[in-house]
Design a protein that fits this description.
single chain, about 550 residues, alpha/beta, Rossmann fold, Ubiquitin-like (UB roll), 8-stranded mixed sheet, 6-stranded mixed sheet, globular, binds zinc ion
Length: about 550
């Protein structure tokens, strides 16, 4: 039946992160992905960034289903927040994605708030109101990723999710090019395709190349070996574990999210580690450095992650010294480069050799490059293309590839977050736009989610900004003078509060300096938390707090 479908990206366009797309027809809505973005340095004081999904909370009917392409945070991280605020009937995801999501929802106390359904890539179509949905297996940097086909009143749509055409994936589960070609024969009206690596020529290397690099590098090493990667990169961890087991090193997993993910993946059969190969962090001292391999979080230089704490000699169980090797098996997400460089420098200062993707083949991307995008376009032969998942330049590069592949100019939709794209009789058009900004989440402290009251920062504008500038005096390291305070948008803080805030800032810094904590980022972190609490206690408000510590 010909009709119309509205497609509204709420996030993921013009950025890498917080992917979320609404599909609406006959008054019913399904959503593909509910991701978050991690804050950049300019967002100091904010823990998470969510898409503004008020469109969903304002709907008259509940969302029919949220369909998840894979378990990365930029695709599932906003789910707890969405489920708390919007009415959602079902969440569909493949087995591993569902395992990761269950644990996340459990931490947020939301496990019973929605019906969780397992998506089967071989399982045929699922009917969800006016939508008929099927899942197609794709290779990516986390197992069990899928593309999603939506048969809708306005036409047949393929959302690729994140993908690469790895012909030798570690689990042997390739992108299902056969199904994609078959889909092309059925006819695809609109392709929403991953654009992350559209600007890069050629093909992305197979995940197996990293395993081969580990196999070259690790056996000849004699000191500790640390491998830092994303906590969700199950195949990367598997490949490091395989080499460790072969050379007789015990494996120690450090970092809460990595331990959690390995447990989930092991329970569901996605990772294979013999029990006797694993040791706990507190057993590390019983082994010689050359007998252990440590898998850890922190590949993005995150301030309180295992790797960064290890680098600064601040980890209770793991230290790094001359003779050790640290493999950073990841690429910094745009915005994290400086943090990663800091961590590398600090590790080198400890005497470790640091191998990272610029100097050793220890990382491959999870996203297909231009040749793979061309192959996807060739297989699916879409009548129209809407590039998704990428900064604008990546979307534009994907649009060029589509044009070169013969998709007419007027059938390429360069949309933005909030664009309302109408697909009518198979033809897409941007017809409107809705509000689609960002929502900030700020939890005081980082760590155990059970204990952290995560607050919605939707009303950031009402709560305003507090900037605090403190100066440290050179090598003797005291606090120089009075910290300066600049408040914007949460009303004039009274003289009394200003004095209190200054004193609090001074106290926080002095205490840390006395404990020889001089790392600027840690100082700022503590300032943020201390002042945040004080301002909340006194005013009930949670302004965004930007601590700036400078050395003179
Ligand atoms: Zn991904
Ligand atoms: Zn992604």
């Amino acid at each position: 039946m010909p009709g119309t479908t509205r497609i509204i990206p709420l996030g993921g366009l013009g950025e890498v992160g917080k992917n979320m797309t609404v599909f609406e027809a006959d008054g019913e809505v399904v959503v593909v992905d509910a991701g978050l973005a991690f804050p950049r340095d300019e967002h100091l004081g904010v823990d998470l960034i969510l898409p503004d999904f008020s469109y969903l909370t304002d709907l008259e009917r509940p969302v029919r289903a949220i369909l998840l392409t894979h378990g990365h945070e930029d695709h599932v991280g906003a789910l707890p927040y969405v489920l708390r605020q919007a009415r959602v009937q079902e969440v569909w995801a493949t087995k591993l994605t569902l395992g990761l999501v269950k644990s996340k929802l459990d931490e947020h106390g939301l496990l019973r708030s929605v019906e969780l359904r397992e998506a089967d890539p071989e399982g045929g179509q699922v009917e969800l109101g006016p939508f008929r949905v099927e899942f197609i297996r794709v290779a990516h940097s986390i197992p069990d990723a899928v593309a999603i086909v939506l048969e809708t009143p306005g036409g047949r749509i393929l959302h690729t999710g994140d993908y690469k055409l790895d012909h030798t994936p570690v689990d042997g589960l390739r992108t299902d090019v056969g199904r994609l070609a078959e889909l092309g024969t059925r006819g695809v009206d609109l392709l929403l395709g991953d654009s992350t690596n559209a600007e890069r020529p050629g093909m992305t290397g197979s995940e197996r190349l990293v395993g081969e690099a580990f196999r070259q590098i690790i056996p000849v090493l004699t000191g500790r070996v640390l491998v830092a990667s994303f906590a969700s990169n199950v195949h990367r961890m598997q490949q490091a574990i395989d080499v460790a087991v072969d050379v007789g090193r015990k494996v120690c997993v450090v970092g809460r999210s990595m331990r959690k993910n390995i447990n989930i993946a092991r329970n569901l059969g996605y990772i294979d580690v013999p029990d006797e190969a694993l040791i706990r962090p507190n057993e590390l001292d019983d082994y010689a450095p050359g007998d252990v391999l440590i898998l850890c979080t922190g590949s993005q230089g995150e301030p309180l992650s295992a790797l960064v704490r290890i680098a600064y000699g601040d980890h209770p169980a793991v230290k790094v010294e001359a003779g050790d090797t640290v493999i950073i098996s990841a690429k910094p997400v745009p915005g994290n480069e400086l943090r990663v460089h800091d961590a590398i420098n600090q590790l080198a200062r400890c005497g470790a050799e640091v191998l990272h993707e610029e100097i050793a083949p220890v990382h491959v991307s999870g996203h297909g490059k231009a040749e793979e995008l061309r192959t996807m376009l060739g297989l699916v032969r879409p009548k129209s293309v809407m590039p998704v998942h990428g900064e604008f330049r990546m979307l534009a590069a994907h649009a060029r590839l589509a044009r070169e592949g013969g998709v007419p100019e007027d059938r390429i939709v360069l949309a933005e977050n909030g664009s309302v794209v109408e697909l009518a009789d198979g033809v897409p058009r941007i017809v409107d736009r809705i509000e689609a900004g960002v929502t900030f989440v700020d939890g005081l402290g980082v760590g155990d989610v059970h204990d952290v009251a995560l607050r919605d920062r939707r009303h950031l504008s009402e709560d305003g900004v507090l900037i605090i500038v403190a100066t440290l005096a050179g090598s003797n390291g005291g606090v120089a003078g009075q910290p300066e305070l600049i408040a914007r948008g949460f009303g004039e803080p009274g003289e009394e509060l200003v004095v209190e805030m200054r004193e609090e800032a001074h106290r926080v810094l002095a205490e840390l300096l006395e404990d020889d904590v001089t790392e600027i980022k840690l100082l700022q972190e503590h300032l943020h938390d201390g002042l945040g609490q004080l301002v909340y206690d006194r005013t009930g408000r949670r302004p965004m707090i930007l601590p700036v510590v400078v050395e003179v």
